[in-house]
Amino acid sequence: MSRIGSSEGFQPVSLKREEDDQPSETDQLSMEEREPETEVPVPKQISRLPSVVESALYPNPYHKPYLSRKYFVTRPGVIETAMEDLKGHITKTSGETIQGFWLLTEIDHWNNEKERILLITDKTLLICKYDFIMLCCVQFQWIPLSAIYRICLGKFSFPAMSLDKRQGEGLRIYWGSPEQQSLLVRWNPWSTEMPFATFTEHPMKYTSEKFLEICKLSGFTSKLVPAIQNTHKNSTESGRGKGLTVLTEPILIETYTGLMSFIGNRNKLGYSLARGSIGF
Question: Total domain count for the chain?
């Protein structure tokens, strides 16, 4: 029930580490040896602070800003341009009122990550593939809110024999029955006919307060659920007559070998990312 459509100087950054500005252990020892001889000699000991290693799915860009600069979406004015483009498109095509705007990561049925912009209007959930390099909309998927009948929240799960598993939690939105899909559709990695969509938080969530707001999965869910319920309440169509069901359960991704997603996700091929220079 969804519709998919298509539409047509940097300054050098110093990579000097903070450690370079600190005196080395040898320099510190030399400074200590030059202390006045009148002081009572005390055995000198070199103490090392224990290193602290934080385990996280994505490093925090607040500590390493150069990591966030690789993502084009974080560059000045890019996300604002995308929002204006989509607002103009909604105004021209449907004239509906936009209730919210989010930047999330979609995970397809083959476990591939894809950078997506999501909008909620009065009657529609819009999933947009946006090119943050060329600043243009590449693909739209329109899902009527009245067609969404189930939302699942929970941790990702995989078959026991799967070789490519992911950690974390996500959200899955259903507007059709997966059991009714043919094997050809289910096992086609490029299929766009799946009756559901799965999302998780964007890796640049902690770049700034602005991105923290638009990349938060809980914020998107808190807007989506009442929007669907209001649409079901005001809908005059017969529909399923079941309303909306919100469940907390594991989200199954049926991949076994996962070679394609292993290569794509490790290299962030689903994101508009600076890949480095090729010339000399």
Answer: 1
